[in-house]
Design goal:
Shape of chain A: globular
Number of helices of chain A: 12
Largest interface: A-B, 42 and 41 residues
CATH class of the largest domain in chain A: Mainly Alpha
Oligomer: homodimer
Radius of gyration of chain A: 20 Å
Strand content of chain A: 15-25%
Number of strands of chain A: 11
Chain lengths: 365, 365
């Protein structure tokens, strides 16, 4: 097991990474202060890992809730199901919530914890690669709105994160790929050496080699923890973690939540952002090709869905959280391993990118 | 105009109290950082004070929203109306929300601000006595759940509070009384001298004497600011501000939100809490009579509604936020001007109080 620390003063917490952690006695309990626990999971993950999780919680009064599975359920209505259950089970202000599942479960449960009785503690047990390398770390919680993704939420840090790499053995192929998209993101925005490593080791990751996965998760979490520690509430550098996400969120909202996986939309979004960076002359054509090739090798989409017009795209991106007094700002690349947040690009270049002329069709998996 | 400061380090803010503040140029603008503003009000208050408020905001891009009026609308559904409007108007992360109205508008708008795009700034302009002396100060925001009052929310501080006493001229009689209930609360929990003053000046308050009202508001806010500064997130002394509220919330939830005004339910709740304190021998019968008499003079209820059985009461109180590992804790009086939070009372005394045998029927207004 490796332990990273996310350093946020009084709100610091450990991230445990390794195999067999769910069954490990004594890992969870020290992070729970009250007597009551509610494990929030979904109907896919609960049958696989709920029993194991509860076995480590014998000394507590445990309640459980299995939500429907999918991004389309990351809504205020589903959030209310968590509140209903908490109140019916008479959970008080000292209850600890445990999120057992992927990014949707983590975001929903974290937001429920941030707002139930004005705030109760929670723990993240991410069971997808995407959640282990990204969404479970850093305290971003929230739900979607029909008009925009993650538009309602809170910054609210967990007590700890437990990333048990064994849970990845049951992860569907498509979700593994979606997680790899976020892994590649770290290489692109701030860690060129890691990008090189990914080019060399992608096949190991796709084959679920345990050592390669643990290595990728640890490196991703280390990158993320470093950025979040410098900018918890995203007033600066943290925005770089949104590389590919402005395009990606537009795809998710435009297609309807759940149609593409979040990581898939981000993968296409990263290709679009790289394409725009190349049009601005910030990265070379060779770099763009390297990026698109790696993403395509991970069996991820490298272009936006054909059904989304450039006009609709612009409309959807206008509600992005990085918009400032009407001006769209995007995370773009100055190089592989160096991202910047900028509103300083000609609109026509963006339109060109959205027409996707720059993305080679043969790069599709 | 008087200016109090709520001292919370980086989250400190001023509370302005006085007449003619809504029309005062330059009071609002320095507390707004971006270009966009959304004023959230209700259908009762907007026709009275929205124009005046907007006149002070000419330099900003202003949007407005008038919600339905009443405690029964303090729900997740109404909150979503605010999000809908913010997104339709393309309000970004730099929008400032302004709550123009009573406690419901302040709680809803504050919670929307706490969670829209994970947090935007907001300003409180309370237009009821209750909101001016209590709910607008201290950063408690949230909505009700069918199973419990204020069960969903956040601690989230405004940029400033503007209490224009002129707005009280249009306040319905019943709401004036409801505000006086919270004013009396401060005397009871921590300010015996203020309680004495209220006994002497209640008729002036009921007659809406401007000087008396300003004095009561200033003294109430000063008491509240002092307590909140010591305990922002209610891990200790702040709970004393909930005197009468555990009983009161049970009344509100039990009758259905909006049936009794919040202040009316708190008034009855304070009488019940005082009655229990007397049964425990903590205050004298004479003190109980003084309390009940002052509350009755303010034309407020001094007993729970007859339709609420003691059993139902106990059930409703079991979800109170101060419950800890199943044990109900109440704010009770050691003296007029001295409250304590305690779980240390025999259940049968509480049952006796709930049967209301101790509350003299003749005290009813």
């Amino acid at each position: 097991m490796q332990t990273l620390k996310l350093d946020l003063g009084a709100r610091s917490y450990p991230i445990y990474i390794g195999g067999g952690l769910l069954g490990r006695a004594g890992l969870l309990a020290p992070h729970i202060r009250g007597k009551q626990v509610m494990v929030v999971s979904n109907v896919t993950v609960a049958p696989l890992y709920l029993d194991q999780t509860l076995a480590a919680l014998k000394e507590f009064e445990c309640h459980t809730l299995a939500l429907p599975d999918g991004e389309q359920y990351k809504t205020l209505d589903t959030l209310n199901l968590i509140f209903d259950t908490l109140l019916r089970k008479r959970c008080d202000r000292h209850v600890t919530l445990i999120a057992l599942g992927g990014g949707v479960i983590g975001d929903l449960t974290g937001f429920a914890a941030a707002t139930y009785q004005r705030g109760v503690p929670y723990i993240q047990i991410p069971t997808t690669l995407l959640a282990q390398v990204d969404s479970s770390v850093g305290g971003k919680t929230g739900v979607n709105h029909p008009l925009g993704k993650n538009m309602i939420g809170a910054f609210y840090q967990p007590q700890c994160v437990i990333a048990d790499t064994d849970t990845l053995s049951t992860l569907p192929e498509r979700e593994l790929g979606a997680g790899i998209a976020e892994v590649i993101k770290y290489g692109l925005i701030c860690d060129r050496e890691f990008f090189d490593w990914l080019e060399a080791n992608l096949d190991q990751l796709l084959a679920r080699n345990a050592g390669a996965l643990a290595c990728a998760i640890e490196r991703s979490c280390r990158n993320k923890a470093g950025i979040v520690a410098r900018d918890e509430r995203e007033s600066g550098v943290r925005a770089l973690l949104n590389f590919g996400h402005t395009f990606g969120h537009a795809i998710e909202t435009g297609l309807g939540y759940g149609e593409w996986l979040h990581g898939e939309a981000v993968a296409a979004g990263m290709c679009l952002a790289a394409d725009l960076s190349r049009r601005l002359g910030w990265i070379s054509d060779a770099d763009l090709q390297r990026i698109v090739r790696l993403i395509a090798r991970a069996r991820l989409p490298v272009a936006a869905p054909a059904t989304l017009s450039a006009e609709r795209f612009m409309e959807l991106m206008a509600v992005d959280k990085k918009v400032r007094t009407g001006k769209l700002r995007l995370v773009l690349l100055k190089a592989i391993g160096e991202a910047v947040l900028t509103g300083d690009f000609p609109a026509d270049k963006l339109i060109e990118t959205l027409h996707q002329s720059g993305i080679p069709a043969h790069a599709h998996a």
